[in-house]
Amino acid sequence: MTDRTAEQSEHFARIDPLLPPVTDLPEGEHLTAVLPDGREVHGVLYRAVYGAGSPESLWAARENWELTPLIGNTGAEGMSALLGALRRRLDREPPTQDSACAVAWPSRDAEATRALLDHGLQPLNALAVRPNRPAPEVDVPGVLVRRARPVDEEEIIALRMNELRYSALVGPNVVRENATELITAEVRRGLVFGGRTWIAESGGAAVGLASCGWTTPAAGSSIAGRLGWGRWGYVGTLSVIAPARGGGVGQALMSVAHDQLNLDDVEGTFLFYSPTNPLSPVFWHRQGYRPLWTMWEIRPASALR
């Protein structure tokens, strides 16, 4: 696999300078496909199962088959061959109905995009990045942005559920029967352990929130191998109630959040958004973010072509 690793690193560097070099592949089941000219392409398949009490079950299928391709510079031909190998692998162990096939691939690799589409995958999520730079001040008359407090718990939960319901209509999120309980537990942990959450108030009522923090691309994390090493700020959730959208509330929240996140030792800021959400792409691009990786999915996994 060494040749394909070097080829893929060089290919990534050509299409997007922000992509990190390809190093070690994650753990999992190895797949191999042979191209007509005899070249081999490889991939690692990891099957994750999220139980009813797992927060991940709110934004992923319960059974998630994630493929990490190592196709070097073989482009659409290599990607298509590897997806064919994945299709044959799934035939040996049929997935459940609540399942997905997922492939994360650089957003700017248009050639591979064609192969992903041809096999039935859809661009349901994107990892977007923003350079570390000063945030413009945004003042919205009648709107106060302040740090969240434990007494705000009920309003934060309501805003998080509002965001989940909308995201489930236009993206990969799922409103499970126990969604409120899972979000309540997460909100309480954040408030107790000092999570960075800001509330936007208008007329004394909460109309939006932003939750943020800092992390590194450690092994096993959602950004491992997808961002350069270092400390990164992240935006976990931005939620604005429908009547307040379009009035600058989201911009005011992110102005405060970016001001707090952009420390001297931070490489930049990242977040995940759904390209199929009619609100997210335009808003986040105006905030200075641009897609680095696209997460392609098909549900159920058995629908892979």
User: What structural class do the secondary elements suggest?
Assistant: alpha+beta
Q: What's the CATH class label of the largest domain? A: Alpha Beta
Question: Which percent bin holds the helix content?
Answer: 25-40%
Q: What does the overall shape look like?
A: globular
Largest sheet data: 11 strands, mixed
Strand content: 25-35%
Spatial order of strands in the largest sheet: 1-2-3-4-11-5-10-9-8-7-6
Radius of gyration: 20 Å
Quickly give the CATH architecture of the largest domain. Answer: 3-Layer(aba) Sandwich
Q: Uncertain spans, ≥5 residues at pLDDT below 50?
A: none
Order of helices and strands: HEEEHEHEEHHEEEHEHE
Corresponding CATH superfamily of the largest domain:
Gcn5-related N-acetyltransferase (GNAT)
CATH topology of the largest domain: Aminopeptidase
What distance lies between the first and last C-alpha atoms, to the nearest angstrom?
26 Å
What is the number of helical segments per DSSP (H or I, 4+ residues)? 7
E-strand count: 11
Whole-number count of domains? 2
Q: Indicate the mean pLDDT.
A: 94
GO molecular function: acyltransferase activity, transferring groups other than amino-acyl groups
Organism: Amycolatopsis marina
Protein name: N-acetyltransferase domain-containing protein
Domain N-acetyltransferase: 143-305
